[in-house]
Amino acid sequence: MRYSILLLILFAEIGLFTVIGGQRVDSMSEIGRYLTLYFSDILAQSAPVLLLAFGMTLVLMTAGIDLSVASMVALIACVMSSFDPGIGFWWTAVPVGLVLGLLLGLTNGLLIARLDIPPIIATLGTMILYRGLCFVVMGDLEKAPFLDVPGYEWFGQFLGAVFVIAMIYLAAGSYLNGSRWLREILMIGGNRVAARYAGVPVTRRLCEVYAVAGFMAFLAALCFTARNSSVSGSSLTGLELHVIVAVVLGGTRVQGGAGTWIGSFLGVLILSVLDEGLRGASVWGEKHLPFKISHIEFLVLGVLLAAGVWMNTRFQDRNP
Amino acid sequence: MFHVHYSRFLVQRIAFLVVGNVLLLLAIFVLVQDGGSFADVILNAAPNVAPTVLAGLGLTGIICAGAIDLSVGSIIAVAGTVFGVLVHRQVPPFVCYAGCVATAWCLSVLNGYLVRGLGISAIIVTLAGLAFYRGLALILADSAITGFGGNISIQDDAYHSPGKVYAGAILILTIAAAGIWENSSKTPSKWLALGNSEEACRLAGLSSGRILQTAYGAGGVFLGLAALIYVTRIQAIEPARIALGFELQVIGAVILGGTNIFGGEGRYIGTVLGSLFLYLLSEFLVYAGVNPYFQEVVAGAIILFVIGLDCAMHRKRKMLEEVA
Amino acid sequence: MSGLLLELDSIAKSFGGIAALKPVQLKLRAGEVLGLVGENGAGKSTLIKILSGVERPDSGQILWNGHAVAFESPFQALEAGIATIHQELAYFGRLSVAENLMMGDPWPRYRWGGVNWKDLHREAKTRLNRCGLNIPTHRLFNELSSAQKQEIAIARALSRKSRLLILDEPTASLSEPEVERLFSQLNKLRRQGVSILYVSHRLDEILELTDRVAVLRDGELVASYSTNSVDLNRIVKDMVGRPLDQVFPRNRASEIGSPMLELRGVSRSPFFYDISFKAHAGEIVGLAGLVGAGRSGLARAIYGLYPIESGKMCLLGREWRPRSPCEAVRSGLVYLPEERKRQGFVLDHSVRDSISIGFSDLITKCGLIPRRLEDSRVEAACRRFSIRTSSIRQPIRTLSGGNQQKCLLARWLDRDPAVIVLDEPTRGVDIGAKAEIHALIDQLAGQGKAVLLISSDLPEVLGMSDRILVMHRGRVSDELRGERMTQENVIMAASGMCAK
To answer: Which residues pair with A259 in a beta bridge?
Structure first.
């Protein structure tokens, strides 16, 4: 039910933006070709967000939230960019990025699980902290060593992006779906006290979840840098909100205890299409609107977040 | 006469902040070495510290009542944009100031209504507000100013007096007013009551929704003044970037001042001292010659550390209550 | 004694099909002190909730001063003049005494509109004085002792000119001199014409304080007499009421094995002090006592939810110092929590998930749960425990209380634990399921497990256990075996009147 609604929204959106953007489609085969091209582009474009959404879904399942994901991606990318490009990049920068991602995530986890800081406050803090570290590493520079690394650009292309996304969403997703680990996570999110009484190692699991979010940030950094080729201290500012809204839109409750990756996947696609559509509609916007159409996005994100959380809560209440 | 009471925890925290502030001042004095520029540090403090203090005063009430507002930065952006647009239209300064304050107040009240009406947590509502208001500011600037190029430049000195000339006066008057109000009104007690126990409030016949509303309303007044000083002390208002990340700074100052993040405890004086501490700390880092990029990191780490310490303390108590 | 103040006319209430209160008639005159006694689950708290406006009765009516009333909220009841001091006080811990007392009323102000704090404190002080209290009104509420908190709660309740004061177990956390002070305060109030409904497990207090005693048993008012004309034994007999006609299964062998769990001088303030006992294989040890006597606290410390402060525990002959429940479960010690909704389940999750969380770590392969095996195990458990569900994918919230409780048991038993701690395993469970759970407990002991049974249901704890430890204020006040295992002895020991 939810998935069909999400798909419906997705296609309605594409239709709307196709019309507004002035794209002409005449025959069925042309529509097919257009959609294929469109989706392959969208998929490669939104690979980082998709990866982050996977981790964020897990975090939301535990009734937490992670505002620091965008800063984590930026910091990992910044650190990786300070290594020399060349074949050596693969066994210096990439492992460093991986370890850094896990460490940053683990820091969040420890703050939340050990010190019991409310997740939103803790990750708001680390969001700013990690962003500050970006500037410490980079200063005001913008570095672009990535495309000089042999084979690196593969992550930014359609094939690479699809491969990574498939590995995460299909392989890891289905593995987790059948695992005890996910059951424990869902129980922690649904009722932390009961989980503790049922013998679930709550603190440890929470740390693991945030570490997974950190790992996803590392993968997202790979895809992002491979596609954009350059990074600066202020890269990806505000991306965390995209990720959260997408996951909420996909039906994961902020109260924890439930959630699906398919929903988050569709949620991300809806936002990416919106993003892309607003960019495509800028010409139309200049003619018809008194403001830049891309600025609507903030409004939409805010409204979608509040409305999504509200609907998820209501929907749950009506079906006891 | 002061009749409001301080718990032992608050007294300790305030004492710590007083000592810390004095030590930081001394350190800065030593580092500056030159009496003239030390006076400058003091004189320049007011415009820089005022927005944090004022917004912090507003947030103190909201957090005491058990809620939160993450959208303060974005609200300042909207208020600043309104101010900029009015200046751009060459409206007399006082109308511009009034517009700025009123906008911030209205949005804060709106937050209160939404938190009360939607029945979802204040964190989520105001996180949504954080995005929404930022967009609102951008769209407002776009539509009201033809050929808007990203920032609104305000060169005329007539429009800078609250931020550049009167900031200290406004700050001191507001703090005094807040102190008097805290000592002569029942409302702050009600906020604390709500933060302590919603159930006991119900038993006493108090409406928790209405109390929350007053907290956001009063918070809006302080936030309006904060926005006023924030936007009048700068030469150009950039709706996309102004007051970005301001919320953590304010929340950090409030928590540092001894207000309980889960509500039910806190006093205005703590917030004032907490904001001052953070400001002096950053100044200290400047004069100590720390890499400017590193300053943000240090400040962020200190805020996280203090919040973490508080939460860990509450955790022990909560754990016992949970299993008892 | 003047006329009738309160009359309950056939008040009845049931929760989820189980009658908590069968039609009850109760009368209370002005200025009278009525003691209400009964075992746990006899319906006392339901009655209090109805009177104080927390719950609405299913049928019957409340006559207050001769008028029928229906309270929609606790505040309305308070306004009408019925003040209730619940066991858990609702107050503002980090506000001053004066603010706590006056929060519901308009505050005195100066002409310019500011709060006149001097008058506020003076007013608060007069209110305290009226109740014979002398507590500095500037103190923060949290800094007071629990006795002072209670006294202030009473003063606050009476400041609304209440005519009926309901006290629910007011002495649970008070020391002896504090109890004395409370009683002198209550006596003062009685002389001022305030009626008091005093609910307590402590029969000595009831005898000392009240004019009349009413006994509730299984939701019915079974007896009511004037305190002068009655003695302790009569009240105990009426509380207990039914002879032990309920049949408890006993198919297990009577010999017991080696000690499985051993405690030596274990303490953790403020929950329990100096507890020592052994639980052997094949033995059921009952743990009786009043609510708040420290039984659950002890169980949770054994389960590793928090550390003990002194003493030593041994599990299966080795020193036992658990750091988390996770460790306890792995070492073969499991615990069935008392509040299954809050501590047991995620109510939206399915029956399968709720049961298999207890044992699925034993059957995982590379972290994956084999679906078929899991389903068949869960289905087998459902059959064995006769858990009635249409499908194991049903959410747990759709099950009845008894079936939920059996799910909790089923969660652990596939692990084959050595020691099982059961905390109120049959609370809120219908009779049929109760008998099934009892049979299961017996079966477990028969398989050589050590069972620690915490229960407030006297017949249950007497009928199931091999011996009974009775706790009173955090200490074991008596250990009962064989002949001495009678309801009277348990009640005596639990209320601190240890039989010699």
So the answer is: none
Which residue's entry shows tokens 């006469």?
B1
Q: Which residue has the tokens 């982050």?
A: A52
- Tell whether the model's pLDDT for residue B163 goes beyond 70: yes
Give Rg (Cα) of chain B.
Answer: 20
Q: What is the pLDDT of residue A318?
A: 38
| DSSP one-letter string for B221-242 | HHHHHHHHHHHHSSSEE-TTTT
Please, which residues bridge with residue B152 across strands? Answer: B237
Among positive and negative, which fits the CA dihedral B142, B144, B145, B150? negative
Kindly tell me if the per-residue pLDDT of C432 is higher than 80: no
Sheet holding C310-315, edge to edge: C272-280, C259-268, C310-315, C318-319
pLDDT for C53: 85
Which pLDDT score is estimated for B270? 94
All residues of chain C having their beta carbon less than 8 Å from the beta carbon of residue B189 are 95, 99, 103
Q: How many domains does chain A have?
A: 1
Query: C246-332+417-500 falls under which CATH superfamily?
Result: P-loop containing nucleotide triphosphate hydrolases (3.40.50.300)
Using an 8 Å CB-CB cutoff, list chain B residues near C95: 5, 189, 192-193, 196
Say how many domains are in chain B: 1
Nearest to C78 by CA among B205, B129, B270: B205
Asked if A255 and A313 touch (Cβ cutoff 8 Å), the reply is: yes
pLDDT the model gives residue C241 = 65
The mean pLDDT of chain B is 88
User: Bridge-partner residues for C7, per DSSP?
Assistant: C27, C63
Residue C342 contacts A where some CB pair is shorter than 8 Å: yes
Structure tokens at C305: 């939810």
Q: How far is the alpha carbon of C461 from chain B, nearest alpha carbon, in Å? A: 22
Each domain of chain C, given as residue ranges in start order, spans 4-240, 246-332+417-500, 346-415
- Among candidate residues B17, B47, B59, B82, the one with its CA nearest the CA of residue B247: B59
B28-64 pLDDT, tens digit per residue, is 888 887 666 777 778 788 889 999 999 999 999 999 9
CA atoms lying within 13 Å on the CB side of residue C48:
26
C361 CB-near residues (< 8 Å, 6+ apart): A180
Q: How many CB atoms sit inside 10 A of residue B319's CB?
A: 13
CA–CA gap between residue B255 and residue B268 (Å, rounded): 11
| Touching A: B residues 122-161, CB under 8 Å | 123-125, 127-136, 138-139, 142-143
* pLDDT the model gives residue C436: 85
Least Cα separation, residue A178 to chain B (angstroms): 31
Burial of A114 (0-12, 13-18, 19+ CB in 10 A): middle
DSSP C153-172: HHHHHHTT--SEEEEESTTT
Cβ B248 vs Cβ A128: under 8 Å? yes
Segment among A208-222, B160-174, C188-202 with least mean pLDDT:
C188-202
CATH code matching the domain that covers C4-240, chosen among 3.40.50.300, 2.40.160.60, 3.10.129.10, 3.30.365.10: 3.40.50.300
What integer is the mean pLDDT of C55-69?
87
Residue A21 and residue B257: Cα distance in Å, rounded?
53
Is the CA virtual torsion C166, C169, C172, C175 positive or negative?
positive
- In which element (H, E) is residue C436 found? helix C431-446
pTM for the model stands at 0.86
B233, B164 Cβ separation under 8 angstroms: yes
Q: Is the pLDDT of residue C1 over 50?
A: no
> Environment class of residue B283 by beta-carbon count within 10 Å: exposed (0-12), middle (13-18) or buried (19+)?
buried
Q: Return the residue in C72, C89, C95 with the most chain B beta carbons within 10 A, the one to mutate for interface testing.
A: C95
* pLDDT bracket for residue C2 (50, 70, 90): low
Which residue segment(s) compose the domain that B82 sits in?
49-323
Q: Cα distance from B1 to chain A (closest Cα, Å)?
A: 36
Q: What pLDDT is attached to residue A24?
A: 66
